[in-house]
Amino acid sequence: MSDQLDTLLSEQRRFSPASTFAADANGTPALYESAARDREAFWAEQAGTLEWIRPWDRVLDWTPPHAKWFVGGKLNVAANCLDRHLTGPLRNTAALVWEGEPGDRRVLTYWDLAREVRRAANALKQLGVRKGDRVAIYLPMVPEAAMAMLACARIGAVHSVIFGGFSAESVRDRVNDAKARVLITADGGYRRGQVVPLKRMADQAMAEAPSIEHCIVVQRRPGSPGDESFATMKEGRDHWWHRLLDSVSSESEPEAMDAEDLLFILYTSGTTGKPKGIVHTTGGYLTQVAATTKYVFDLKPADVFWCTADIGWVTGHSYVVYGPLANGATVFMYEGAPDWPERDRFWSLVETHGVTILYTAPTAIRAFMKWGTDHPARHDLSTLRLLGSVGEPINPEAWMWYQAHIGGGRCPIVDTWWQTETGGIMITPLPGVTTTKPGSATIPFPGIVAELVNDAGTVLPQGGGFLTLAAPWPGMLRTIYGDDARYQETYWSRFPGRYFAGDGAKVDEDGYWWILGRVDDVLNVAGHRIGTMEVESALVEHPAVAEAAVVGKSHDLKGQALAAFVTLKDSHQPSAGLKDDLKAHVAQKIGAIARPDDIFFSADLPKTRSGKIMRRLLKDIAEGRALGDTTTLADPAVVSRLKDTYESQEA
Ligand code: WT7
Known about the structure:
Blueprint: H1 2-9, H2 19-23, H3 29-37, H4 39-47, E1 58-63, E2 66-71, E3 74-75, H5 77-81, E4 94-99, E5 105-109, H6 110-126, E6 134-138, H7 143-155, E7 158-161, H8 168-178, E8 182-186, E9 189-191, E10 194-196, H9 198-207, E11 214-218, E12 238-240, H10 241-246, E13 257-258, E14 262-268, E15 276-281, H11 283-296, E16 304-307, H12 314-326, E17 330-334, H13 345-353, E18 357-360, H14 362-371, H15 374-377, E19 386-390, H16 396-406, E20 413-416, E21 450-453, E22 459-460, E23 463-469, E24 479-480, H17 484-492, E25 499-507, E26 513-518, E27 522-525, E28 528-531, H18 532-540, E29 545-555, E30 559-568, H19 576-589, E31 598-601, H20 615-622, H21 637-650
Parallel strand pairs: 4-17, 6-7, 6-8, 7-14, 8-11, 11-12, 16-17, 16-18, 18-19, 19-20, 30-31
Antiparallel strand pairs: 1-2, 3-13, 4-5, 9-10, 14-15, 15-24, 21-22, 21-23, 23-25, 25-26, 27-28, 29-30
The structure holds 5'-O-[(S)-butoxy(hydroxy)phosphoryl]adenosine.
């Protein structure tokens, strides 16, 4: 981290907004001024751009750490994203432009999407889903994923989207925690030319998920009905999406939801082995995602907005579905991998669909850099006018490359810091307003109060420390599903009265934020959040493993990669075969994103006298650094032994 800090400290480049962009930008300096004058009035003004069934009585009830926004107000998220656009020209405008990995395409106007969502809402109702019930969604990036989310929102069901790359066991655990009554999946989804057998995994999950009464299956594979190898339908429980929708009417009234009713639960990794169900509600969440989409991405009617995140992550919720659709935008959505069939697929998509705004992750940008400039250079990218970055710190070199080779030197870059828990963007430039510095997420969005504190919780005007949020914000998580004590403990106990995000950061002399990454036992692997404890739990469930410690190790492309130190039971011997077996075991338990890059066998692990594994030392070993302080160790010799074995195994 200190190398990283040095690089950032020496970053002197500045990019001030082009006057042509500024002249026409949605964002203005006045937004910051009005939010600074009266934060609640600012957010109320943003909420006022939505359509409310009943106006709110109070903007904010704040009983730390519990916030209620727009108290007493009633609205429906799906009506705000769809119905209210149907009375004007947006009715016949593309809401969703979609391309599948094999190259199949669909365009849905606002009218089309609204009609499908009304039918899907009626289908859910017909299966007995009522307001407040949980619906799990385990789908590839197909239009039905957005439809399913909006259908839930329409009837007041709470969705829990589970990333299509997660394993059957991960699906099972999430479904059981939420006690979902319905699971929506697909026969399969395309990834690098292969079909991911989602329904088969859903079947395994459902076998141990007693709350599930019905499963709705989207037919993704052309001509697949009856193709039993990918979707075996269980009579009475399983229903094809298209048949179900054909059997219901397309008339449906949106449910009047309280501003604080649950909109969704989204599971994310924390510092324990058990993922947390992050709870987001209706009015505040939609207000923040609508406002940030409008100002951060400068959305205009002619834009084609492409956020490359999967719907299974919060970025997909907020900036593929809710934020853009609330703004009446045209959203582009792509199903597959960036290097399929060739490494220019993204650029071919930008050219074909005339994408104007691209929002992606540094890990992808670093891969594009490695693949070389020929791929983007072969395509006409002149429609692009704004670029975004999210998910992890973007190194200045990647920022500069993105600007030059994708943005053609003319597109502003918005580096946006936020989290699953924050619901929407928190720290970001406003294009046309904010001068940017490569590698800095710049300053808090209007109405957001971020403060840097030291270890003792003292606020620092600048320097290095911890990123905290000192005032409630509309899109904030309300609790952890079913575990409010964990909510209070995880986010509000380290620095009393402040939300602690888990990130280390630096604030420079201009008040600009430079995010340095997680300071807890959470890793960021290729923009995906993975808890070290989850991977450790998966490893110790393997019959050969006695103990395991997982650390993050710097990786050129992924930012961080997983390295696992494993102690075997006496009955098992280290071998290359066992390493592969353990990697496969983790992928099967959690999902391919958690597969360790390196596994090291070790007779023992460095522990403090109280028995805590010293991950910091393991990280030093994994990254080949001189060892840190070992004085608190129960047996300092363990570390040097480990380092020797590590180096010999690495060869
Ligand atoms: C963590 C949140 C919400 C976006 C998708 C990830 C890291 C996110 C940035 C950024 C530096 C970033 C932080 C944060 N992060 N954006 N622009 N610069 N770091 O959501 O899975 O909840 O992860 O991603 O470490 O805590 P998430």
